[in-house]
Amino acid sequence: EIIGFSTAMATFAVNFAISYVVTRAFADNPEQQQDMGVRQQVPPSAVNAIPIVYGNAYMGGTFIDAVLTTDQKTMYYVLAISSISPNGQFTFDRTDMYYGDRKITFDATDLTKVVSLTDEAGNVDTKISGNLYINLYTSTAGGTITSANGASAPSTVMGGSDIAVGQRWTGTRQMNSLGFAIVKLIYNRDADTTQLQPITFKVAHTLNGTGVAKAGDVWYDYITNPVYGGAVDAAFVNSTSATALNVYGDQNITFTNSSGAPSTQPRYRINGVLDAGQTVLSNIDRIVSACDSWMTYNAALGQWSVVINKAESTAYAFDDDNIIGEIRVSATDITSSINQVEARFPFKENRDQAAFVNIETPSGLLYPNEPVNKYSVTYDMVNDSVQAHYLANRLLEQAREDLIVSFSTTYYGIQVDAGDVVSVTNTDYGWNAKLFRVMKVNEASLPDGSLGAKLELTEYNAQVYDDQDITQFTPV
To answer: Which end of the chain has fewer CB atoms at under 10 Å, N or C?
Structure first.
């Protein structure tokens, strides 16, 4: 996550944050705002924000229009499903959509017509045939509408003589940059179409023609988009860091698949839905949590960038020659050091219903008399048990590295950026090039009047970044 910078100036002191990271670890979605309707089909409202899906997800829609025909026998409903990025490719999976809890089968010729509904026991209901039509569309930023299942134009579907003149759609309703649906429901008691049941759409929103939603692409798209994102001008966003995250996320990790065989998959993919009613920083937190990264702001460059939490080579070295004054050291209290993780994620094999990964620190690594301390985390943008397990394992291992260090340094420290890995040598603490990750760099006035820097560091261990003992979840 990235947070802005602050400047405090007194007569003889300057404290300026050159770059810093506000860690997202152990800060799981603190907001208590109204849920703007991300996963569920929701009623009309003046405050419903249209969500943005990245990757693959199951989701409902938000009502934006409803019309009853003049004979009072048919209802037309318009549901906005997701915003679409200017660099995005948005598709519907018509083979995996649901009306209520029953799977939809469309007619082979008229792809908008629902001909049957199948429940989880395999029972097929054909009474729905001819009473429910679902027209699927995407619209570009310029308002060019394309049907995803051969439907007529929206102005035709909702512009017929069965609708009162004042309620008909015209060609000026362009639904810019949206995936949306127009549902036609004909009143029929036998078919149980007296009211619209929740519709679950399976959709995919990939970026930049890659066929997937890479973590770096998603972060860059969201922070720069002026409609559903952060609206930060591209000049103030470090695209190089996004590319580096893509490269790291494309690397394969190993795991044991549900059949017990060794397998691999890319380290990071984003698959989930962001609620546009939440704050930008909260949604960025969800994105970077899904790829174990941070966002930083570098005041010297005037740019936001993403910092990848990964094994790094040492960027700078600190010892008695460039450390000024005291070294402050603290450690996480044993009663608050986590040793169990429960990771919650929307599971793609069960229509994005909640699933859990539970892991714990091996007993041989626990301190004497260490109490059980379970931490629950939600990965909203991860729909895969392997990635959720990988992230939870990193979190658990990182928790064993509990030293927090701060000290002042000469002007040499100004060139350090938040996220860099540095070494610290100090005989009093027994550190011989011990590694730490920099979390914050402050420009500061030193006691002798010269300009220096104050660093805040956390303990670093490259072994945290392994992919050991990951087993794919087997759905029942």
So the answer is: C
DSSP 133: E
* Structural contact between residues 179 and 140, judged by C-beta atoms closer than 8 angstroms: no
Give 179's contacts (C-beta < 8 A, 6+ positions apart). 80, 81, 82, 83, 84, 90, 92, 136, 137, 138, 139, 203, 205
Q: How many CB atoms lie within 10 A of CB 378?
A: 17
The phi, psi pair for 122, rounded to 5°, reads: 90, 5
Contact (Cβ atoms closer than 8 angstroms) between residue 307 and residue 87:
no
- Spatial CA neighbour of 253 closest among 243, 262, 261, 242: 262
**Rounded distance, CA 467 to CA 80, Å?**
39
**Residue 96 dihedral angles phi and psi, to the nearest 5°:** -140, 55
pTM: 0.86
The Cα 54–Cα 82 span in angstroms is 9
Angle at 383 between CA 379 and CA 387, to 5 degrees: 75
CA distance 307 to 438: 11
Closest CA to 269 of 358, 348, 178, 344: 348
Neighbours of 369 (CB within 10 A): 6
Contact yes or no for 325/407 (Cβ under 8 A): yes
Phi, psi of 180 (to 5 degrees): -150, 170
Task: In whole angstroms, give the CA distance from residue 191 to residue 179.
Answer: 28
What CA–CA distance (Å, rounded) separates 137 from 127? 26
H or E stretch at 154? helix 154-157
Per-residue model confidence as pLDDT tens digits over 356-366 = 999 998 888 88
Identify residue 400 by its one-letter amino acid code: R
pLDDT tens figures, 267-298: 999 999 999 889 999 999 999 999 999 998 88
Phi/psi of residue 391, nearest 5 degrees:
-70, -40
Alpha-helical runs (H) found in 208-338:
215-224, 239-250, 280-289
